[in-house]
Amino acid sequence: MKKLLVANWKMKPTTLADVELLTRASDAEGVVLAPPFPYLDFVKKMARHAELCVQNVFFENPKNGGAFTGEVSCAMAKAMGATYAIIGHSERRQFLRESDAMIARKVAVALEAGLIPILCVGEGHEVRHRGEAQAVGFVGMQLMTDLSLLKNEPSELIVAYEPVWAIGTGNNATPEQASVMSNAIRKAISTNHPSLRLKVLYGGSVNAGNIAGFARERDIDGFLVGGASADAGEFPKLISIIHNL
Ligand code: 13P
Q: Annotated catalytic, 162?
């Protein structure tokens, strides 16, 4: 199975000309593009091979929309052509105080709306410093709450293990650490959802120099890439490494 490459552009690029450049450079099979909301339609119309993802959704999806200024519903994301939704990214947990309770609602409405959630979990520096067992326990607790509101048995889910200390820092986890965590995530979820099609991704300072090491790990099904995915020079290198595995 080919590993999935999800490009989380975060709040980049800042010009439409650069969005065009980046989309051209990133448009390939097995790639999922997560641009900022204003660029969704533009990217959707340009991309021939890549699938589309939103970086967030609101935790309610009322049939006729609602009075939630600044928010975007799952129905809108679907209508714009998104297949996936990143939910619970650590930057939103940190800067927007998104709680696991909110994230649980988002995961539930996304699945109901037919979007595939890319649920982000991961421990911070302090927890990691206390050891691997603590990190597994911390992520296990996140998963338990984040998946607590599912109404029906989901058929497909993606979990991204993104240790907070590895995001945007250049301090990537080792492939072994990422593999242990991915395995623990898989076990925790498959106990309660045996028939679920689950992919576990790694994210945190992934680049062309280190991706091959992670890709060799059987428990890692792909990558959620931040900085390197918004770089039109770097991302094609990641694509070609993954395609040539
Ligand atoms: P970096 O690849 O920049 O560390 O970001 C990872 C990330 O947050 C992807 O969602």
A: yes
User: Does residue 15 sit in helix, strand or coil?
Assistant: coil
Average pLDDT, the chain: 97
Structure tokens at 7: 């490009």
User: Which tens digits make up the pLDDT trace of 157-197?
Assistant: 999 999 999 999 999 999 999 999 999 999 999 998 999 99
Tell which atom from ligand 1 comes closest to the C-alpha of 224. Answer: 9
CA dist., res. 169 & res. 150, Å (int): 34
pTM: 0.97
Match domain 4-244 to its CATH number in 3.30.470.30, 2.40.40.10, 3.40.50.1100, 3.20.20.70.
3.20.20.70
Going from N- to C-terminal start, the domains of the chain cover 4-244
Check 51, 98, 162, 217 and give the catalytic one.
162
Does 177 sit in the ligand 1 pocket, CB within 6 Å? no
What are the residue ranges of helices labelled H in 163-234? 175-192, 211-215
